[in-house]
Amino acid sequence: MDLSLLKALSEADAIASSEQEVRQILLEEAERLQKEVRFDGLGSVLIRLNESTGPKVMICAHMDEVGFMVRSISREGAIDVLPVGNVRMAARQLQPVRITTREECKIPGLLDGDRQGNDVSTMRVDIGARLYDEVMPGDRVTFDTTFQVLPHQRVMGKAFDDRLGCYLLVTLLRELHDAELPAEVWLVASSSEEVGLRGGQTATRAVSPDVAIVLDTACWAKNFDYGAANHRQIGNGPMLVLSDKSLIAPPKLTAWIETVAAEIGVPLQADMFSNGGTDGGAVHLTGTGVPTVVMGPA
């Protein structure tokens, strides 16, 4: 595993529509390997891995993370923010964050809000100053979490949803850049998934694939639960999502993936999401429909 790459992706700050730090990492890899790169109108990155007369396959992961946006600044220097994406209630109080200004200046601060976690209008960032002229409405706010390597081949950091997917895109690019493949493969890093699966839709229109694989992550609601019901356990193989709120994977496609995994000796964890969805929900409805499946690292 390239820990320096994963660290760079994790520590990049990229809420929806402001993914330039992640985009730059992907572009540098594509340019180094001399791959064709396109963009959709939202800023999603479309990398053509190879040329082929076979079917067109799109492998997609989203660049953005949940975070906040500056709403207003009071005379006393209180910086009011609103969530961008579904930020968990437990992460809305007393969390270190950093503000990225329009001049790309990074300002550390502390996020605090309603102790019950219900009133987003009370969420504020304290940067330890009464006034800060550099901060403006619309500036991006992300969690200030340092990437760390833990024992037993574990890592800790922010934005693994979905920088792990972006890491896999780069890994595929590196390992398959000169391979002869029976399909034309497009590696897509989509914009604005956390606010409505937006880049997944526009990127799919641009690529027009015959089939799509979406890479995304999920956590288990109960920490330290290693029972049989938990199909998202680290080290037990990739997650194969059979259904979520936005997509029911085609049985023929999931069966094919299960067959290939068995042939190469890779265990899978079949799972279903009772809430939420991924870019797959937008991808599979684009055009006349795209057979789509969602997978996740574990």
From TrEMBL:
<dbReference type="InterPro" id="IPR051464">
    <property type="entry name" value="Peptidase_M42_aminopept"/>
</dbReference>
<dbReference type="InterPro" id="IPR008007">
    <property type="entry name" value="Peptidase_M42"/>
</dbReference>
<keyword id="KW-0378">Hydrolase</keyword>
<dbReference type="GO" id="GO:0004177">
    <property type="term" value="F:aminopeptidase activity"/>
</dbReference>
<dbReference type="GO" id="GO:0046872">
    <property type="term" value="F:metal ion binding"/>
</dbReference>
<protein>
    <submittedName>
        <fullName>Aminopeptidase</fullName>
    </submittedName>
</protein>
<dbReference type="GO" id="GO:0006508">
    <property type="term" value="P:proteolysis"/>
</dbReference>
<comment type="similarity">
    <text>Belongs to the peptidase M42 family.</text>
</comment>
<dbReference type="Pfam" id="PF05343">
    <property type="entry name" value="Peptidase_M42"/>
</dbReference>
<keyword id="KW-0031">Aminopeptidase</keyword>
<dbReference type="InterPro" id="IPR023367">
    <property type="entry name" value="Peptidase_M42_dom2"/>
</dbReference>
<keyword id="KW-0479">Metal-binding</keyword>
<keyword id="KW-0645">Protease</keyword>
